[in-house]
Specification:
Structural class: alpha/beta
Radius of gyration: 26 Å
Number of helices: 12
Largest sheet: 7 strands, mixed
Helix content: 40-55%
Shape: globular
Strand content: 5-15%
Length: 348
């Protein structure tokens, strides 16, 4: 970056109000703040869900800010089907959509997290990642990610092998070691080891702030949300709380100052933003594709099913030249359905 080029930064780890009772970034306010800071893109990475993505997309476009669709998924400790108390937990992972392929893969995994892997949280696993990684950019996540946890456990070798596995899966340029610093004691342990790991493996770094609220002053509001979530009051000494008030949407200058030892980690956030170009298309009817068996045309197969259904309900040769009056209406209904099908050119 030349001296005359203004520094840019993109937030890639953001929890909106759709990270229920955890995220306090109100979508109708956050883009005003991003515009004030001169930032031109932002990601949504709610915990395990994607039902805030359309509202986020619309608000971002209205504000003239590039929306990046993503999710902070929960990855099962073993597989998504293993659900044993105190054995099968999860770790966090950031996934961002580069294109429509990535979006389709991400929604498949998030859905499977609920229908197949739910155990306290909607969990995916490495099998799903191996099947549906195309079109996605992956970041190693926060202190709850698999790599930071291995470092905190004193197992640097496991952290390194895990990073290499993700790099090989997602491919060069699609996997980043995520750096965070919220002033926590754990950050002082993990951050230098993550930088070391990135330099030893050649995996690029991306700086993020785990944004759960918009401004520093909103930290109290987020603490109240956590109390509601955990059934505590703000005065309970054993309540769950964030240990600092640094989990907000920081300015570009704040992020570059925080990671002055690795400015490329901030610069890489814009490279990621440039690669993420998925956009929702509204106003078009989209139907799933169905391939008829035995090489039949879909229209012919649809008519065949209609006649078979009619035969089940009105046994006998009802399609002969002169059907009884009570059966004419049913036959006409079949013909009418087939005509609508052809007219609409539906493809199942």
């Amino acid at each position: 970056m030349s001296e005359n080029t203004p520094r840019q930064f993109t937030h890639l780890h953001v929890h909106t109000e759709y990270s229920l009772l955890d995220g306090a970034c109100r979508i109708d306010r956050m883009f005003d703040r991003l515009k004030e800071m001169g930032q031109t893109a932002c990601a949504i990475t709610d915990h395990g869900v994607m039902y805030g993505c359309v509202a986020f997309f619309d608000a971002a476009r209205a504000a003239g800010i590039k929306p990046i669709i993503g999710c902070e998924v929960y990855v099962a400790t073993r597989t998504r089907f293993d659900k044993v108390n105190r054995i099968d937990g999860n770790s966090h992972l950031i996934l961002l959509c580069k294109n429509e392929t990535g979006y389709k893969n991400l929604i498949k995994m998030v859905s499977a997290g609920f229908t197949e892997g739910f155990y306290s949280k909607p969990r995916i696993d490495k099998e799903l990642l191996a099947q549906h990684h195309e079109g996605l950019i992956c970041l190693s996540a926060c202190l709850a990610g698999e790599i930071p946890r291995a470092i905190l456990a004193g197992d640097y070798d496991r952290a390194k092998q895990t990073a290499l596995w993700y790099r090989d899966l997602f491919g060069e340029g699609n996997y980043y070691i995520e750096l965070q610093d919220h002033g926590l004691e754990e950050d002082r342990v993990v951050l230098p080891q993550l930088i070391r790991l990135a330099r030893e493996t050649g995996i690029p770094m991306a700086a993020t702030n785990d944004a759960h609220y918009i401004t520093k002053e909103d930290a109290k509001m987020q603490s109240i949300l956590l109390c509601i979530q955990t059934g505590k009051t703000i005065n309970d000494v054993d309540r769950m709380e964030f240990q600092t008030d640094e989990f907000y949407l920081k300015s570009t200058d704040e992020m570059y100052e925080l990671f002055s030892m690795v400015p490329e980690a901030c610069e890489n956030t814009n490279k990621i933003a440039e690669q993420c170009n998925f956009a929702f298309t509204f106003g078009e009817t989209k139907l799933p594709y169905f391939k008829a068996p035995d090489g039949m045309e879909n229209q012919a197969y649809f008519e065949k099913l209609c006649w078979e259904g009619l035969e089940r309900r009105y046994p006998g040769t009802i399609w002969k030249r002169s059907p009884p009056p009570e059966k004419s209406a049913a036959i006409n209904a079949v013909r009418f359905s087939a005509a609508i099908f052809a007219r609409a050119r539906l493809i199942f």
